[in-house]
Amino acid sequence: MLAAVVMLAAGSSPVLAARSGGRDQSFAGDGVAVLDFGPRADGAAAGDVLVTSSDKVVTVGPVGVGADTVFGVSRLRADGTPDRSFHGTGRRLTSLTGRDVPRRVIALGGGRQLVGGSAGDAFGLVAYRRDGSPDPGFGTGGAVTTDVTAGPDQVLDLRRRPDGSILAAGTAGEGFAIVRYRPDGTLDPGFGDAGVVVTTAGFWGTPNAVRLQPDGRLLVVGSSEPDAHGYLGFAVMRYTADGTLDETFGGGDGLVTTYPPGREYSRAWAVLVLPDGRLVVGGGGYGEGDYSYFCLARYLADGTPDSTFGQDGVLSTWLQPYYAHVNALARQGDGKIVAAGWTDGEDWSDALAVVRYHPDGTLDRAFSHDGSAVVDLAQRTAEARAVATRNGKIVLAGEMASYAGRRWAIVVRYRQ
């Protein structure tokens, strides 16, 4: 059964839980749910999270089953207990090839969800109905696989268009691809080459995240190539919907590279598109005495650094003793930015971390005393992979691991 288990650092109190940035004690007893995918599961992680209008929490991530890796989907009720109206247990395992890794989940309407990731070396998508069963109106038995290139392909982002069609974007061989599907999962021949567009220019550096803009343009973020000093910076590239570099972005070549001050090695892992078209990129910056920091950079819609944010568009936040890194970003309805990832915990284990900023990049010190909250799981290492905000709650999804290497998917809920 999918279980809600409380595993927290000492010191939790009703007063702390009731304030902004306190763990929500109405969720799983003390704010943390550990997801159990049953006796067949050898290990699990949560890589993305979706919160419904009724505060149900849907997570997706890879689950090990023997020698295979499969799609693992879970749904929790608003109180953090398994939603047994979803497949009878609150969880669902789906195998497409036995080498399957889900990356994103979006709502399709009518209580349905679409999960995208990799099915072996192909794009893999599975649609689920409200009750957790595969949607027979999508693909074959609810599933679609698309072999985009001869190399490894994987979906990293999904977007449902107003007409019901679906855009899937991700890495494809040595480049990137956008694939458009009709609502029933068939390829849309009116888009690109029989529904598929592959980029014509490679990424300058190491790509870590892909995000579709509302207009169909593709953002890719990661680490730049080394500069003359061997330093790495944030790299952001934008492609048009037809797969060419967007010459309206950056210096006319579709590329922006940012070196956070004092950080010799910076890696971007998340990108957030704001309602006005500006972009926030998050990751980690390493330097200054072997420390690493939560690093954010904000850009105008054309890729120009936003000078109203932080220092010349960049800010760094130091958390616990040595290391910290942003994996995911979200925006609250009031414009505040939530960054989630990991930092050092006690006994040198990684701890799940979340930081909230005002729209101008200053720390929101009304959130958990000083703007940051850390969940340190005793004798465990943990990190947040995804974050969502809704109905006055901040929901993080990620993974926890024992020192012996066993992994569990976890969900943590905070009060905004």
UniProtKB/TrEMBL annotation:
Keyword Signal: yes
Entries under InterPro entries matching the protein: Delta_60_rpt
Organism ancestry: Bacteria, Bacillati, Actinomycetota, Actinomycetes, Propionibacteriales
The protein's name: Delta-60 repeat domain-containing protein
Signal peptide as annotated in the record: 1-17
Keywords: Signal
Phosphoprotein among keywords: no
Gene3D superfamilies per record: 2.80.10.50
Origin superkingdom: Bacteria
